[in-house]
Write a structure and sequence with these properties.
322 residues; alpha/beta; Rossmann fold; 6-stranded mixed beta sheet; 6-stranded parallel beta sheet; 10 helices; 26% strand
């Protein structure tokens, strides 16, 4: 079969012949791959730059998940037993979700990683409750846009969205955002706007995709003044603006802030079970009925060497069609 093959983690995958995968037992299902998304997480794993990377085996096929077709024609999203950026792959039988007939394979492949970074973060780390106010920091990215839509779907009373791309930021008003904050504003303007909103209606959840300076400004805005303050769960999911922050102890001591992360290693095992049994099927149903807006950029498996690390707009997801 044809596949994307990694020989060196510092180089893009090659488009080459590779041995067909062979099922070891009844729990491994052979599928013909249809579409594979390439979020930053998968690029990090392939290059060895993500903390969960395993790069001591080569040659190997990259990417952990995608959409394939079973022998009977049923399309499923699944987690691969080995890499899935190839014409064929093995899916773990316990980690598959049927793709609805009304949902195309490219969109179906693009959604799951963003669900990990939005739905699971909201439900299993932030423990979002209906009626709460949610601030999504870095909401103009692909996962952030999905998070805005899902936060409202899960019952958020108000969604505050931040971002640098003004056009994408304004589009979020049509996707469920109630308040917009431009990260191109001055630090003082950002802090003042968040303080005002927080004093009017306490922010219960912050879902952060940028970390670094924007996160510092939000945390500063939530600092208390020596009196009882509402509880805010600050959940960081990404670090597009940088991997470090300066955080004053006084911010945590003076407020009801609970600071945590969401990602591989921090999500509970139950979250992964719920992803396949309930969360992803529900999100797929929303997408199939046109209730979610998803933007993708497609490429072909044959172009993997030039396109695997290709830069695409942050609001879109690169997907290889097989």
């Amino acid at each position: 079969m044809k596949a994307a093959v990694i020989y060196n983690a510092s180089e893009a995958p090659k488009y080459e012949e590779f041995s067909d995968p062979v099922s070891a037992d009844e729990n491994e299902i052979l599928v013909s791959m249809k579409a594979v998304a390439i979020p930053n997480f998968e690029k990090g794993l392939a290059s060895g730059k993500h903390y969960a990377s395993i790069t001591n085996t080569a040659p190997r096929i990259p990417v952990t998940m995608g959409v394939g077709e079973m022998e009977d024609g049923t399309r499923v999203f699944g987690i691969g037993k080995g890499g899935v950026l190839a014409e064929k792959a093995l899916f773990n039988k316990a980690q598959m979700v049927r793709v609805p007939d009304g949902l195309d394979s490219v969109t179906a492949a693009a959604i799951p990683n963003a669900v990990l970074g939005s739905a699971l973060a909201l439900l299993f780390r932030a423990n979002l409750k209906a009626g709460e106010v949610v601030l999504i920091n870095g909401a103009t990215g692909f996962t952030g846009k999905l998070a805005v839509q899902l936060a409202k779907h899960y019952g958020a009373k108000k969604v505050i969205a931040t971002g640098r791309n003004q056009e994408q930021l304004e589009e979020l008003l049509m996707l469920g955002a109630d308040e917009l904050i431009s990260l191109k504003s001055t630090s003082e303007e950002i802090i003042t706007k968040i303080k005002t909103l927080h004093e009017s209606e306490p922010i219960g959840v912050v879902l952060d995709y940028t970390w670094s300076k924007p996160a510092e400004l939000i945390l500063t805005a939530l600092q208390g003044k020596g009196k009882f303050t509402p509880v805010t769960r600050f959940v960081t999911v990404g670090s597009t603006a940088g991997d470090s922050i300066n955080l004053s102890s006084a911010i945590l001591r003076s407020s009801g802030l609970s600071l945590m992360g969401s990602g591989v290693g921090s999500l509970p095992a139950e979250a992964l079970h719920q992803l396949f049994s309930a969360v992803l099927p529900e999100v797929y149903a929303l997408a199939a009925s046109g209730k979610l807006k998803i933007d993708t950029v497609s490429s072909r498996l044959a172009d993997v060497e030039t396109d695997f690390y290709k830069e695409v707009p942050a609001s879109k997801r690169l997907v290889f069609e097989i």
